[in-house]
Design goal:
Length: about 50
């Protein structure tokens, strides 16, 4: 019986938290590289100064 409780806890708590954390990390990495690309592509634009 205790094994079933542990499995339910892992399925309900641990896996969703791990998926959310990995999604947050992926979003952070993607945002970093996209911002870096935009800053180099549009260097000298006055609109970049507004996005601080």
């Amino acid at each position: 019986m205790i094994g079933a409780v542990i499995i339910v806890i892992v399925l309900v708590v641990a896996i969703p938290v791990a998926v959310m954390m990995s999604g947050a990390a992926a979003a952070g990495v993607l945002g970093f590289f996209l911002r870096k690309d935009v800053e180099t592509t549009h260097e000298g634009s006055e609109l970049l100064d507004l996005n601080v």
